[in-house]
Amino acid sequence: MRHPIIMSACLGLALAGCAERSERAEVERALQSIDAIDSANLAEIMLDAGDPDEAVAYFQTASAENPDRVDLRRGLATALVRAKQPARATSVWRQVVASPGATSADRVEYADALIRSGDWSAAKTQLDSIPPTFESYERYRLEAMVADGNQQWDKADSFYQTAAGLTTTPASVLNNWGYSKLSRGDYPGAERLFAEALSHDEGLFTAKNNLVLARGAQRNYTLPVVRTTQTERAQLLHTMALAAIKQGDVATGQSLLREAVETHPQHFEAAARALDALDANVAN
């Protein structure tokens, strides 16, 4: 009659042991999850707010300790691009796109690193390998740049337009598109695009400067009506002066340089030097 009692006791101990092991396993899994979350959060922080060189160091160490983690290699490649080391980034992106967990977005980032390192042909190969069903602002921005480089203007225009429609902040890509038009000699088209870029971001100085170049190329030497600081206004007058001189309108260029020097809140060395050289040349 004692056997059932002994068996029950043993079964109870076994179940208790199983429960303890199960709880321990659950705790370990929870800790692993917390570690993974902490690691992901730290990686995100390093990329978003960390110093680029510190981010590179972090991801180098983390990816070396976890060679199977494609997300850490992806983080390293991204950090290298931000640290202005695109050549090193391309070798890491090459590993990422060759891994089982690679995505079309990875190929886009790889193409970006290739462009930054000057390998336009390889970048085009990567972009061509991405399915047409994958659509993103970054993809079409790069497609436009590659088409520009190959002087495929219709393709470039189409890609720029698509990219601009895929972002809520299109100022930068509109500025790039405008510069493409400027380089082709389509000055009115360029002027419209720079103005549109500024309607989305009135503080984008490169678009202001490019807008002045487009107007100057059409012999329109009045500054556009855009919000500027006093320093920016002086810089734009300097740009307009150089555009006028390039067009052969030397007297206008002189007048604009003089206005630039007078407008700048401090000594405007570049404009003053150009004005002195021009005055000396005219005197001779």
UniProtKB/TrEMBL annotation:
Gene3D superfamilies assigned: Tetratricopeptide repeat domain
SMART domains associated with the record: TPR
SUPFAM superfamilies: TPR-like (SSF48452)
Superkingdom of source: Bacteria
Family matches, as Pfam families: TPR_19
Protein name as annotated: Flp pilus assembly protein TadD
Protein source organism: Palleronia aestuarii
Lineage, broadest ranks: Bacteria, Pseudomonadati, Pseudomonadota, Alphaproteobacteria, Rhodobacterales
